[in-house]
Specification:
Blueprint lengths: L56 E6 L8 H4 L7 H8 L4 E3 L2 E3 L7 E3 L7 H8 L9 H8 L3 H16 L13 H18 L6 E3 L1 E4 L10 E5 L17 H13 L4 E5 L22 H10 L2 E3 L1 E2 L2 E2 L35 H15 L7 E3 L28 H6 L1 E2 L3 E2 L8 E6 L4 H9 L3 E4 L5 E7 L9 H11 L1 E2 L3 E2 L7 E7 L7 E11 L5 E10 L33 E7 L9 E9 L2 E2 L1 H8 L11 E2 L2 E4 L2 E3 L4
Parallel strand pairs: 1-4, 4-5, 9-12, 19-28
Antiparallel strand pairs: 1-15, 2-3, 6-7, 7-8, 10-11, 13-14, 15-16, 16-27, 17-18, 17-20, 20-23, 21-22, 21-24, 24-27, 24-28, 25-26
């Protein structure tokens, strides 16, 4: 029997406008972490000292979260420093609201992605003696406690300057040197906590572009310690093509970096566009540039699932999952089919066929967008919200929400990144991300392998053999199949989280474009639990549901601990561009809102699911006849 775990209540804090905030911490302010001397950085090991595993190990981590260096987090009370975030990620306790929070299992890596837009302002706010520290507005920022006062202050001095075609710094900005100082603290703290082979601290930031209220945010991650003097922000560069130009300039100087878009569901049609930022049609150069700098996309986070939506995929029985419909209440964010990742992947095939390059060739990666300073806080049974007081109490999660973004009841936990890398180092993880050998889960540490190839045996005899044959005779997730004349075989192996629920099934989702340029998709149940048989219509019956809604408990009397199988694409056409990705589905378990209700003797919410089926998505494998 799996029972929910008790957890400490989060401290209330405020989340406003840039949509996200954080949580109080009894640690010193973030920039009290002083710049670290070279002598304090562990130089005993480098990435090259760590042994390589050619068959890869999976490493779990976070690529999207915020500390007190994000202004929207700080104004709500977040005082979690980068040091605090790393300590929490490594399994150490951190003090929040007078209580110690400690994760159940340490992470393997973290990329802290504070908003680049205001890190200079936050350096001035939190660092005594820094330029601008004694400004009256920053004195107010440090001392405000009233929620309404904080919100009004933020709207007046920050949001008003950020909106429109030409966003500006707020009046308390003290110059570019403060940005550089903040970045220096952030990157040197990463160096201090980075331990090759043990724990990886990736250097990163978020470029928070939001033209016309559409979410085009990108998390930028560097391969190693070779980084610029400062990150670039939405204030500096208004559109994503300008961000790529900046990245290309850094590449020309020997730096290596990639960008990860997120929240396509809130992009107002701009994440997978038919035109460039200047209104001109997408061309080959655009497609090649975007594919080069953006190998991955965050499929799901705290503001909902961007894979698919039940409205546009009624035939997909698992599309009704964390759809976050209330996002549509603000900023004109009406959902369209083209806002979701699966449709974007299909659109990419059309461009690949027409232009010769796929601008939307995205693998998948996980992230939470947590603004409480807690990396990968992804357990349903201990959700404390991610946006301070806006979702920091049971009442707020049930009856209110995150201003300008989402109703509390629609929040999801976010996702966890799984990276198949040769070593747990900056270079090892970044290289795996670049080649898209990644997947994401909705929290559980499911392990999943996915390979394709013409010569792969159709019935793998063991997980070990599946992996060996996959690398020797085929290609892994995130790769391209070579030009082939016969149908490929796909092999998959999924292993349950040892602390979690059993597995229901593994599916493969295929998308392709025909001769007329029309896109299609198909969902295939490849392997499943409990010896179920397909119906006459080819449907797999549901696995069942053991969730006790009165106690928020479930058991593993259904489902399997591991699933392994293969599928041959009998409809394969060697002239058609296509992609394939695997989706692993768990048996039903309680949703966070059910744990909230049971713990507090409240009725279940009627308009959200009481139990959910957690899942994992792999990066696709692509086929291009021109390869």
């Amino acid at each position: 029997m799996n029972k929910f775990r008790a957890f400490p209540q989060a401290l209330l804090v405020l989340a406003v406008s840039l949509q996200l905030v954080g949580c109080e911490n009894e640690s010193p302010p973030a920039s009290d972490v002083k710049p670290i001397s070279d002598a304090s950085v562990d130089k005993q090991k480098s990435d090259s000292d760590i042994a390589l595993n050619p068959e890869r190990d999976v490493y779990f981590g976070e690529t999207h979260m915020h500390t007190a260096f994000s202004l929207d987090a700080y104004i709500g009370g977040n005082r979690m420093s980068h040091e605090d975030a790393y300590r929490y990620a490594k399994g150490e306790g951190v003090m929040v609201d007078g209580r110690e929070l400690k994760r159940h299992r340490p992470l393997d890596f973290v990329a802290i992605s504070d908003h680049a837009e205001y890190i200079g302002e936050m350096y001035s706010t939190m660092t005594e003696g820094a330029p601008g520290y004694d400004q009256d507005l920053l004195k107010q920022l440090r001392t405000m406690t009233d929620i309404k006062e904080r919100e009004e202050w933020f709207l007046k001095y920050v949001v008003s300057a950020n909106r429109g075609a030409n966003p500006q710094h707020p009046p308390f900005f003290s110059g570019q040197d403060t940005v550089k100082s903040a970045w220096k603290v952030m990157t040197e703290t990463a160096d201090r906590y980075n331990k090759p082979g043990e724990f990886t601290a990736l250097k990163a930031f978020e470029w928070s572009g939001a033209p016309q209220g559409g979410n085009l945010h990108r998390n930028v991650i560097f391969r190693d310690g070779n980084v610029p003097d400062a990150p670039v922000s939405y204030i500096d560069i208004n559109r994503e093509d300008g961000l790529w130009e900046w990245m290309a300039t850094l590449e020309s100087k020997g730096m290596k970096l990639l960008a990860i878009p997120h929240n396509s569901n809130a992009s107002k049609g701009m994440m997978f566009p038919s035109v460039k930022a200047d209104g001109q049609p997408i061309d080959l150069e655009y497609a090649q540039t975007r594919q080069h700098f953006e190998p991955l996309m965050e499929t799901m986070q705290i503001k909902g699932n961007s894979e698919v939506h039940r409205k546009f995929w009624p035939e997909d029985e698992f599309a009704d999952f964390e759809n976050a419909d209330s996002i549509q209440k603000s900023s004109g964010r009406t959902f369209h089919k083209g806002d979701f990742v699966r449709e974007g992947l299909k659109m990419g095939l059309v461009y690949e066929k027409e232009l010769g390059s796929n601008p939307f060739k995205y693998g998948t990666i996980g992230g939470t967008d947590n603004h409480n300073g807690l990396p990968s806080a992804v357990a349903e049974d201990s959700f404390i919200g991610g946006h301070g007081p806006e979702d920091g109490t049971v009442e707020r999660r049930r009856t209110a929400g995150v201003a300008g973004w989402i109703d509390g009841k629609d929040l999801s936990i976010g996702t966890l990144s799984g990276v198949w890398a040769t070593q747990n180092t900056r270079t090892g993880l970044w290289d795996a991300m670049k080649r898209r050998e990644t997947y994401s889960t909705t929290g559980p540490r499911i392990k999943v392998r996915f390979f394709a190839g013409v010569e792969l045996p159709a019935n793998p005899t063991s997980a070990k053999e599946l992996v060996r044959q996959g690398y020797e005779l085929g290609v892994p997730m995130g790769s391209d199949l070579p030009s082939i004349g016969s149908a490929p075989t796909f092999t998959v192996h999924a292993l349950k989280d040892p602390d979690g629920a059993n597995l229901d099934r593994v599916q493969i989702i295929k998308g392709w474009v025909d001769k007329q340029g029309k896109t299609h998709e198909k969902i295939i149940d490849v392997v499943w639990s409990d010896k179920r048989e397909l119906t006459a219509e080819g449907k797999l019956p549901p696995v069942g549901n053991t969730v006790n809604l009165k106690t928020a408990e479930y058991d593993n009397s259904i489902g399997d601990t591991a699933l392994m199988g293969s599928w041959v694409d009998a409809d394969f056409d060697a002239a058609q561009n296509a992609f394939y990705y695997a989706r692993v589905i768990e048996i039903p378990t309680p949703r966070w809102s059910t744990y909230d209700a049971v713990r507090n003797n409240l009725p279940l919410l009627e308009d959200v699911q009481s139990s959910i089926q957690e899942r994992a998505w792999t990066s696709p494998i692509w086929y291009n006849p021109a390869n």
